[in-house]
Protein 1
Amino acid sequence: MPSSPPSRRGWGQAIMTRQELIQQIREKRSFLCVGLDTDPKKMPKCVFDLYDPIFEFNKAIIDATAPYCVAYKPNLAFYEAYGIKGMKAFIKTCNYIKRHHKNHLIIADAKRGDIGNTSAMYARTFFEEYDLPALTVAPYMGEDSVKPFLEYEGHWVVLLALTSNKGALDFQLTEDKQGERLFEKVIRQSQQWGTEENLMYVVGATQGRMFEDIRRVAPRHFLLVPGVGAQGGSLEEVCKYGMNDDCGLLVNSSRGIIYASADDHFAEEAANKARELQQQMAAELDRRGL
């Protein structure tokens, strides 16, 4: 456990309360999260003439898409793969968002989680050293692997619940003797550790009507929903079964936006794709009177 968890907003911090997030969604008519899964193998050639290509690519994408989204989700794997240079680009990217787009939530997609003292160090890394407001966490080692992250007032823990990959069938959908599936147990049990003010859940967009089951267990929590776009998830279906009275959704799109074009106009095309999703989201919000 951290000896003295931060309890106030520090310089540059992009912390966002639940109510502030709801307000941003209503003002922007969007619940889009842009995933920064930045892969040099897919980046346009024009950025490689710049000093820090990964950061410069991210910066261009962020500036182009900021009017149409409420959050960014850099995926740590795409930065850690390039060692110190990659992690410097990650930190520069997060600091750029905090300084220039302060109304956007930053979710570090790192899927951390280990025994208590190790989780405490992971929490310290992301919430103190990197000064980030939200982090994805793997819950399958239980309470003591999650609670150190929840010790940080004003920060979000985004817990893996039901993912969209094929392997989700191996464990997440298995049932106990009472017929409760493992993902349902994770959601139900974790609500004893955190609240709707500091706890979200990851639910893959390809899960369809399974969102009804999620909402029976967690009617008010925000859901981070990857898989719309390149992975084939349906925004309409996610909204039909997963949206609540506060919207309650952050729908992520990564490849479908950031790699919309491989030429010099990549940022402009990313903006176009983000705008298309924002307009669809606005229609869904309007349909529900939100």
Protein 2
Amino acid sequence: MQLGMIGLGKMGNFMAQRLMKGGHDVVGFDPNEKARKALADAGGKAVDTLDQLVAALQPPRAVWVMVPAGKIVDQTIDALGGKLAKGDVVIDGGNSNYKDDQRHAEHLAGTGIDFVDCGTSGGVWGLKEGYSMMVGGDEKVVEHLRPIFETLAPGKDKGWGRVGPVGSGHFVKMVHNGIEYGLMQAYAEGFAILKHKDEFKLDLEQVAQIWRFGSVVRSWLLDLTADALGRNPEMKDIAPYVVDSGEGRWTVAEAIELDVPAPIITAALIERLRSRDDDSFSDKLLSEMRNEFGGHAMKKG
């Protein structure tokens, strides 16, 4: 099957390579020349403009968009809407908000262009392991794209599926990422407790390796954590600053809107925000309050 791909960053190129290994023809565009060269070097066809991409694809066309969520996705899909034709399909495989998917689908429907959203998990390991894909869109359209999803997935019948109408794929992926926040925070806190028990001088990588087999807390995330602890047990040269993709925020906002309590995911998000404040006004004020009402000592900066 032929597929156009827009956005040839590391993950986009890895996905293209997996598709090509599966026998698919990939035509890719990225404004970055090095990204285009990487695709060409891997055996794909790289083009310099969106017009060239559309011209290189045989109707009905399928174009996979793999660009950062928000304005860039809006601009890319708006541009494609003016170049594609009735019967073509746009797949957003990035981390877009599901409400944006619904808006894009409605806009493209006026020109007869179908829209599919695909929440994609797997990161840089997807080339080897396959990607987990949560797909939203019309059932017939998704079925037409089945060969693409089957090739990208860990197996034809596992790791992917149509979960519902347009928007549902990214909604499920959003909650997936919220759960990920909570899991990561729990592992991080647990290993921090182990590290601070100086009396036992625990080898954290050894503990992680033990937990990897037979334990109820075993997971691929723990496998990766064990690898990281083996390479850098003291986490040297790593700033205690944790970024977020935005999906944790969306998950918390959705939980509030649906009146669903989500204290773990919310706390994990707050911890990420807290990690970025190296001169916390709130902590300073808390210390001053203790001094005011109780005369407690304050540590001076």
Protein 3
Amino acid sequence: MLIFLTSCTSTKSKHYTETKSSQFQNKKISVSTPKYLDLLIKAYPDVSFVPEYDKNFLDWKIHITVPQKDSSLPQKTSVLYWAEGRFLPPEKMKEKELYEKIFYFYPENIPDPKNFTKEQIKLIKESGETEIRKNNYYSSPHFLFDAIYDSITQESTEANLEETLFLSKNTKIHYRIQDALKKVEKRILNLSLTNQEVKEFVDTLLRVDGFSWREIRDSPRKSFHSFGIAIDLLPKGWGNKIVYWNWEKHQNPEGWMLTPLSKRWIPPLSVINIFEEEGFIWGGKWNIWDNMHFEYRPELILYSEMLENK
């Protein structure tokens, strides 16, 4: 479960909804198409999202067609139900309320623990408890991302990986995010020519960890590293600061959630901005913070901008 406790303002993003009429059992019923489907269409322009209303489930089923890495092969199509933004296969619809929606608010500003209330601190601490995380199977359904990245199995995922260099460090990523990551790299390197802080960030980078077929630590849920769409950036010596909440939890089980921002390793804000402008979110804005982690989620950037501009 991801918890955010801040609000912010940001750039413009337009959101459009449309209403279609469907004819069922000789009755004309007005049905609104999925509210945020347009954000996915904008986030993944080469993917086809075609809604079709299913009167049996009283919900939209979304036909998702994705081109393959080998363009000579036919495209792959999956069908998932909207389920209020959860994107579930039909066999999961009976338990849909157990799953969280894929859209959540990603803040502009880094949540600062000095502003947390006692209730917020308690909630964050509980969400980091090992037993709670181990039982948190339903919180983040991955069916949509399995469809987009052909990542149901390790074998199918690895067939879509590319070895690449990012800031002179070897890593493996899904081919679909390669262009976005190259844009990030180019912009960071250009900025490093005139910005000393960014230059030091590049010069002190120790390694870049991309694809890893694994579950989230202390959780039964598949990590976004398993899709090849997340990278971890680790600096030399971690900048003598704290990088990851769970490492700090072992040292300070009662107070890790209050670790001051000044004691956490944080990439230059200009670097974070570049990643976000190219569709990546940064794990340092989660209250369960992971400051080395960047994840390609352009739909969340668009969703949050839409909320901020309402």
Protein 4
Amino acid sequence: MNLSKKSALSIGLALGSGSSRGWAHIGIIRALSEIGIEPDIVCGCSIGSIVGASYLAGNLDTLEDWVCSLTQTDVVKFLEFNPLLRGFVDATRLQSFFTKYICEENTQFRDLSRIFATVSTDLESGREIWFTKGQVLNSVWASISLPGLFPPIQSQGRWLVDGGLVNPVPVSICRALGADIVLAVNLNGDIVGKHFFKQKPNKKNKDDENVFLTFKKSVKNYSDSFFEKIKGKDNPPSLLDAISGSINITQDRITRSRMAGDPPDILLSPKLAHIGLLEFHRAKEAIQEGKDCVERMFPEIQYIMKL
């Protein structure tokens, strides 16, 4: 199916938060393009800001090639553990990734091919902060700074953290910027509780497993309960499972509340419960599910868009 857009209405695409599940955004953008839908406005939260910025900077092909080549070893190299640090992510390595696969360091919002915005959270007031001008990468940093993984980002006298805490699927920003029709991607629609019953992972590369175990060992030196369930009759979840589950619940409830008050015209909810919070190396699965999601929703898209 290769249909062209017949509507003159402005189209907004809201790319939601969801950590490693966010690579599904790439598949969704690809599938929408195949049926003739090119958004005029793109708004991203957290991982959605990464994919959205790369897309509008003309680097989506490069980003997709790289994420599809990721191994667990590559993912672990982005992590570092030190109890004195404010996060788990190696900021220097991540900055290098940003400039190579998203956009150049000094790229401004006005340099992008279409209207773009990101959302972050003011750590002191709890207010959502919108970025629509200035340096793109600064806004991406602020939007993805999930507490525990990233340190807060200072901007204009405020400490900012992940936008998913207040507006996980930024439909409202698309509307405020002039979108007549909003397509929203919710990565959190089926995740609550599901990560406790994940499918068995694919067979690991031996080198991948060794690197992961090295990182795991360094974490366990600080806290044995980070990865492993505590032994006993009624085993509680590990610390990582508890953190993941808490983030899933928070994002799901906030998403439901925000979209109840400002629903999108088309809601795309890829099925991604089988992909864990930090399983960025499973990009191929996420991207394919993004494409499949658009295909499943095509009748609704066709009806709303009058294709």
